[in-house]
Design goal:
339 residues, alpha/beta, 434 Repressor (Amino-terminal Domain), Rossmann fold, 3 domains, 6-stranded parallel beta sheet, 4-stranded parallel beta sheet, 12 strands, elongated, Lambda_DNA-bd_dom_sf
Length: 339
């Protein structure tokens, strides 16, 4: 039989109300010696407080929900680590949901966190051009009932969070590549309806245009490793059938997509960067473990997670932080002398 709070109260020789105040975190604190007796009794009997009762006593569940698109993607797992570390010894626990890029699963995750009465929900991942009306209505209802919502990525009305300046960062990255001597570019642009894909590819292309250059091809497709692998494979096949592969610099709008492009290039027995240069975006931790090391635009991913977590802990403080990335050129875009 499960141990009840009544059993703990009897063991400690106190009233049920006193035992509840000690174990459920009421603002009314019994004397230290009484609290110690109640906790000792709970430990002896193996009693664990009821989370719902604690939430009622404290007016908080001490839970934060984090929704990501793909927890296997190092971009999101690094952000999740930052959120977790920001909570420190606050006593707040992190709940995690991964949507696998499915809008319906994102809605289900938000609904689940609402039913758990989480104190805050953090949404991490690119928003779509036509945002889901049902999701926006859910968020509005959650906020009206005292919940906080933080967005990592693109801003949404009446919500705090971290806005990533993808367009300006992509412009800076293009400028660095041009300064390094690159003149011929192909862009793996991801999905046209994702704001992250659109902003990164638009920023890169705009800088090329202002520099008197044009991308030789802009290829849309799934915002994923496999999507980039297919797109790069098709591009190389077309180039070979047209007379041969010319040296270009391939800009992928995410590091994960860059890894897919690299796989396709190697399967076609081409060298990086001697035959084709590759550059990504995000600076996920695994990039420096790949040979050659991969050029990218560095975002402070773990810090972004920490900032979002700190916002969630500061109840009622609505803030927006704008973050820009820094170009990092590594071996995958190096040009030999005279090229």
């Amino acid at each position: 039989m499960a141990v009840r709070l009544t059993d703990v109260a009897n063991e400690a020789g106190v009233s049920l109300a006193t035992a509840s105040r000690v174990l459920n975190g009421s603002a009314r604190k019994p004397a230290v010696e009484i609290s110690d007796k109640v906790r000792a009794a709970a430990e002896k009997l193996g009693y664990f407080p009821n989370a719902q009762a604690q939430a009622l006593a404290r007016s908080t569940t001490k839970l934060i929900g984090l929704v990501v698109r793909d927890i296997a993607d190092p971009y999101f797992s690094t952000i999740a680590r930052g959120v977790q570390r920001s909570l420190g010894d606050s006593g707040v626990q992190l709940l995690l949901a991964s949507t696998e890029y499915d809008p319906e699963r994102e809605i289900e995750a938000v609904q689940a966190f609402m039913s758990q009465r989480t104190d805050a929900i953090i949404l991490s991942g690119s928003r779509s051009l036509g945002e889901n009306g049902q999701l926006l209505k859910l968020i509005e209802n959650y906020q009206e009932n005292g919940g906080q919502v933080m967005i990592i990525g693109q801003p949404m009305t009446d919500m705090g969070g971290i806005q990533i300046d993808n367009e300006a960062t992509a412009e800076h990255l293009a400028a660095e590549l041009i300064s390094a001597g690159h003149r011929r570019f192909v862009v793996l642009a991801g999905e046209a309806n994702l704001l992250t894909s659109r902003d990164r590819s638009n920023g890169f292309l705009e800088k090329l245009k202002r520099s008197g250059l044009d991308a030789e091809e802009v290829i849309s497709g799934p915002f994923s490793r496999e999507g980039a692998y297919v797109a790069m494979s098709d591009y190389l096949k077309q180039q070979k059938s047209a007379g041969g592969v010319h040296r270009v610099c391939v800009f992928c709008v995410s590091d994960v997509m860059a890894l897919g492009a690299i796989r396709a290039i190697r399967e076609n027995r081409l060298r990086i960067p001697e035959d084709i240069a590759v550059v990504g975006f995000d600076d996920i931790p695994t990039l420096v473990d790949i040979t050659p090391t991969v050029s990218t635009a560095r975002l402070p991913l773990e810090e972004i997670g920490k900032w979002a977590g700190e916002m969630a802990l500061n109840h009622g403080e609505l803030r927006k932080i704008v973050v820009s990335g820094v170009p990092v050129l590594r071996e995958s875009t190096q040009l030999a002398d005279g090229q």
